[in-house]
């Protein structure tokens, strides 16, 4: 699936020209039907900061647990990664990490969509072959995922031989179902969108509403998938399983599309050379969506495994969750289920369409100089800050806005102050007064204190929100544990109690155990969102990296810290971000304290996929 459409111009690295993603939805007028094609039935075959995650959950050894398979879109390689694709992948990684904490065997699939006319055009623009171009951009995605702490399990490229073999077998399955036929079609075609447009959606002079350029008449002879045949089955699926498309307002969109009538769509191109050849006609190539959607299945194949649909499906299909941008919802919630039904395969359990990103309340564009480059963002602020801001500040499913000032304010207030400073000053007091050693078990230290109940309630709230894909609310619940810890510290003032000695000093030592137990729980509960930060917190509490990597959500239960346990030397786990401002001469001025200002809501003029 091509990278979600960007309604913007974006800056392109490596001297690639700026091109918009195709959406590939075909509305066409059929002018002549030719014979349906039939083929013999024998064509059917019934970590740590590691880039590749090898720990698929803390499940019981020897068990054949049903996997939790989550997918990002397969990103279109006409251009380097943008913030929209980074956001999709950060969210998918957080969900996958949470599911691993629950003890599930998780398979996180990501990858790149590498066929189509735009790929060939982009490659030609920078003087390289399509294959060379795909290699460069695909590697750029892998490097960014590493920088963002993405622990994926499978990275599929649609130019992989195993993927092409799966596409060919799938094509024959659908063909044998009598769902592929050949026909002429014509219509108004948007070159930039690479799709046929319905006249009802065009502006004056047949202009595309996205690119404001006139669509051109085009007629081709291609192969079609009989989508209209599956209108009734799709209606029944959505009626019987309303959770299939989420959030609920996305379900309403999909039901509206189906209600308006489904049209068969072209699954081949005669004029596009860079693609998988149609198995029955080497003069045409498979249309990119009919090709790329199957990457979710071909990715499941193990190395050296027999390449077949059956082998891939038995390795984890159906997917538990397709996580996508809302602009490619039609392909995942209408086209894809129909294709799977035709091939006799199970449907994914859920398709979740998230929103778009804006910057400072405005659309992003190269001409405006306000694009968000994910590589620059992560190298400037770090992976934890980027992950936390977008998951905490963008309500998952809705559109969201980025501004650097708000980014710095949120990250400093939440990660540096509420969490980082609480840990640092607590350990500082423990070092000064208790030689970094806990005096009692955390269960004993919390006896008779409401604080323990508050933390347990907030942890449960975080768990429920993670499970419901309410990632922002999950972050908020964990942050509230930090806020409660700071209030507890300020109320009990252990630094004063230590000065009094005797029973007061003993009470102060217990207070530090209580706060550090809350920090231990935060390190687990926030780890899906900010894994590197949480690892540092856990290590400061005297645990090893291996212990952190093998955590389970059940360990958020109060009582992990034990008397006699020795903490590590205190050091800041998250440094405050200082904004550097230039003076009138263009030189860097001294760092200035960021002051959060009241923001005025601005009308959103355009968006990039979030």
UniProtKB/TrEMBL annotation:
Name the reaction it catalyses: tRNA(Met) + L-methionine + ATP = L-methionyl-tRNA(Met) + AMP + diphosphate
Every Methionyl/Leucyl tRNA synthetase domain range: 203-427
Q: What is its EC number?
A: 6.1.1.10
- One cellular component term from this protein's GO annotations in UniProt: chloroplast stroma
- TM ranges are none
Q: Which InterPro entries match?
A: aa-tRNA-synth_Ia, Anticodon_Met, Met-tRNA_synth, Met-tRNA_synth_2, Methionyl/Leucyl_tRNA_Synth, MetRS_core, Rossmann-like_a/b/a_fold, tRNAsynth_Ia_anticodon-bd
One Pfam match = Anticodon_3
The reply on keyword Protein biosynthesis is yes
- UniProt key word DNA damage: no
Q: Where is this region: Disordered?
A: 586-610
Q: Where is the Aminoacyl-tRNA synthetase class Ia domain?
A: 60-119
Q: Which GO terms describe its biological process?
A: methionyl-tRNA aminoacylation
Which UniProt keywords are given for this protein, alphabetically ordered? Aminoacyl-tRNA synthetase, ATP-binding, Ligase, Nucleotide-binding, Protein biosynthesis
Biased composition of type Basic residues is found at 594-603
GO-annotated molecular function: ATP binding; methionine-tRNA ligase activity
What residue stretches are annotated with the Methionyl-tRNA synthetase anticodon-binding domain? 445-582
Q: Which family does it belong to?
A: Belongs to the class-I aminoacyl-tRNA synthetase family.
Which named protein is this?
A: methionine--tRNA ligase
Which species does this protein come from? Gossypium schwendimanii
């Amino acid at each position: 699936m091509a990278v979600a459409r960007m309604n913007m111009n974006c800056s392109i690295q490596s001297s690639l020209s700026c091109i918009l993603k195709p959406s590939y939805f075909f509305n066409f007028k059929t002018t002549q039907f030719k014979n349906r094609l039939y083929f013999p039935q024998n064509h059917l075959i019934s970590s740590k900061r590691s880039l590749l995650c090898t720990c698929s959950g803390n499940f019981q050894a020897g068990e054949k647990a049903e996997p939790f398979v989550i997918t990002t879109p397969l990103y279109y390689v006409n251009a380097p990664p943008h913030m929209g694709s980074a956001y999709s992948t950060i969210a998918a990684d957080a969900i996958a990490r949470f599911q691993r904490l629950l003890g599930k065997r998780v398979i996180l699939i990501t990858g790149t969509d590498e066929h189509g006319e735009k790929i060939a055009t982009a490659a030609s623009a920078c003087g390289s072959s399509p294959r060379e171009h795909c290699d460069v951009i695909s590697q750029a995605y892998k490097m960014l995922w590493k920088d963002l702490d993405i622990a994926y399990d499978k990275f599929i490229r649609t130019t992989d031989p195993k993927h092409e073999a799966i596409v060919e077998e799938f094509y024959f399955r659908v063909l044998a179902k009598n769902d592929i036929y050949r026909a002429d079609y014509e219509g108004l075609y948007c070159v930039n969108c690479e799709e046929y447009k319905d006249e009802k959606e065009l502006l004056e002079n047949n202009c595309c509403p996205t690119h404001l350029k006139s669509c051109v008449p085009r007629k081709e002879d291609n192969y079609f998938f009989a989508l209209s045949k599956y209108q009734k089955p799709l209606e029944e699926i959505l009626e019987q399983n309303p959770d299939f498309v989420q959030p609920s307002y996305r379900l309403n969109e999909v039901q509206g599309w189906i209600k308006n009538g489904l049209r068969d769509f072209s699954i081949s191109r005669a004029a596009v050379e860079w693609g998988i050849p149609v198995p029955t006609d080497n003069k045409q190539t498979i249309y990119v969506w009919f090709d790329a959607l199957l990457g979710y299945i071909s990715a499941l194949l193990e190395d050296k495994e027999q390449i077949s649909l059956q082998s891939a499906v038995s390795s984890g299909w159906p997917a538990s969750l397709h996580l996508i941008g809302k602009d490619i919802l039609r392909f995942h919630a209408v086209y894809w289920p129909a294709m799977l039904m035709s091939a006799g395969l199970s449907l994914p359990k859920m398709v979740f369409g998230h929103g778009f990103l804006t910057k400072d309340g405005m659309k992003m564009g190269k001409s405006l100089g306000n694009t968000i480059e994910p590589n620059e963002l992560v190298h400037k602020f770090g992976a934890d800050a980027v992950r936390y801001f977008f998951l905490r500040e963008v309500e998952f499913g809705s559109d969201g806005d980025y501004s650097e000032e708000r980014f710095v304010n949120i990250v400093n207030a939440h990660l540096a102050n509420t969490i980082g400073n609480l840990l640092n000053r607590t350990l500082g007091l423990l070092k000064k007064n208790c030689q970094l050693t806990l005096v009692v078990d955390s269960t004993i230290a919390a006896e008779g204190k409401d604080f323990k109940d508050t933390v347990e309630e907030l942890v449960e709230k975080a768990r429920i929100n993670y499970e419901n894909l309410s990632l922002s609310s999950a972050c908020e619940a964990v942050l509230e544990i930090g806020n409660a810890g700071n209030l507890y510290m300020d109320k009990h003032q252990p630094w004063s109690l230590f000065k009094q000695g005797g029973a007061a000093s003993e009470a102060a030592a217990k207070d530090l155990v209580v706060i550090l137990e809350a920090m231990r729980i935060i390190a687990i509960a926030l780890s899906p969102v900010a894994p590197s930060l949480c690892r540092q917190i856990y290590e400061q509490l005297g645990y090893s990296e291996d212990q952190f990597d093998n955590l389970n959500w059940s360990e958020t239960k109060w009582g992990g810290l034990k008397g006699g346990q020795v903490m590590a030397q205190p050091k800041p786990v998250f440094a405050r971000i200082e904004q550097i401002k230039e003076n009138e001469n263009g030189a860097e001025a001294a760092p200035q304290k960021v002051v959060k200002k009241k923001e005025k809501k601005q009308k959103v003029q355009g968006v990039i996929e979030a």
